[in-house]
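Hi support team,

I submitted a single chain yesterday and got back a structure, but I'm not sure I'm reading the token output correctly. Could someone confirm the output below corresponds to the sequence I sent? I've pasted both exactly as they appear in my results page.

Thanks,
R.
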Amino acid sequence: MSTRRAWRPAERGLVVLLVVYFLVFFGLALRQFNIFGRDQSLYAEYDSMFWWTLQGKLFLMSGYGLSEFAMHTSYFWVLLLPFYWLAPGVPTLLFFQTLALTLAAWPFFLLVRRVLEDDWAGWLAAAAYLFLPALVSQNLNQIQETVFVAPFLMAAMYFFVARHWRWFLVFGGLTCLVRENFPLAVAMFGVWAWREKRDWKWVVVPLVGGSLYFALVTFVIMPAMRAGHAWHVTNRYFDYLGDSPGQMIATVLQDPLILVRHLLQADVLMFLVLLTQTFGFVLPFVSLPVLIALPDLLVNLFTGANQMRVIAYHYHVATSSALAVATVFTFRKLQDRCRRQFGGTGGYARLLAAGLLVVAVAQWMLWLDVGRFRQLPHHETLVRALQVVPKDASVLVPRRMLGHVSQRAKWDVNGLFWDPIRKAEPREIPPEYPYTFEYVIFDANERQYPPFFTRETFEQFSKNPAYRVIFAENNVFVFQRVATSPVR
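Hi R., thanks for writing in. Yes, this is the structure output for that exact sequence:
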């Protein structure tokens, strides 16, 4: 006779929700990719990274000439390598990105059910979690390693709350392997455990282990792989404070109010409002799990890089996950207060979770751009333009097409012919570099991603004896380089 526990109605309902959610958002992500619906720069970078790995150059980011592990210690990518080998291409990476976001809702459901002692409150909260703007947006954003932290960090939080030591270690360790900043989130579990007066292992292991691992990868491993250059975050994201940790400390000591002035800037305040409004602004900040959100939250607040405060970008997955858990703990306090004041068990937990779901869904305008799913009028022309370029030839293409040419040794964006675009790249690119490619695709219909193709651009290539037009249809052009010494 089987002793297997029957699935509860809320559990079955959650499985249905997760399956539907995954199918819908993977389908949308795949359509967006197939119809050239957005800038595909990072699609291409990570697809190329896996392609080069299969060629024997492990996790090479060809555009930078460095290993991915010299820029981000995202060792978890190794787990996806067998699947990419079986089905190479951007769709495989999109599949696992959406799968990671979807699966993160299950440990969150378990955590909510444990804290609020209500299955359907757990279901409602899990649904809300799936539609948090900072998370749901990542299904349709570009490929990023930070997205994959969601299931690992959420499982670590669940097993921490449930006091399952070994499983907490497993998922805390996996969280550290996603990116170099996440060990600091793991370290904060130690502070949380200290405030709860837990056994020493709950305090010391995450606090010391997370801190030491962060120091090791950021100050030893990555600089060694970057020929001695410091972690790029220190000199790119806080340049208003200085170019090195020492300069930053000196700047703050000389002008302590510089950080206050920075926090009072309009874009910083608006970011904080948009990030926290789903959680009732203050609800997460009165419960201990907010500690897990603090490392990334503080970085995003104090950085000088404005893009790190865009809700729909990839910088807020861990932060929003931890804020969601902290909000649930505050819900428990509110539920207990309602029970004392109004009596009975009531549906307080379900009401609070339903409110979270309504507010999360209501913020769809922060992440949904339906224009990305409309096929371009000249879509078939772009497809035919790609078909005239040999699969192993070097090629420059518009940003929308990058993910479709990244499984080759040499590819890049066609904007590199223009000095402002080339000089804006984080890598140093010589002026003659774009003229070394065998093929160039231009789309004169493009009006979203500059530079825009003009008649002058066409004449620049059509009158250049180093190139010949091999495709011209619906304002889409393919040029082939024919001279061994390109003429500029």
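A quick pointer for reading it: The longest helix spans residues 9-34. Let us know if anything else looks off.

Best,
Support desk
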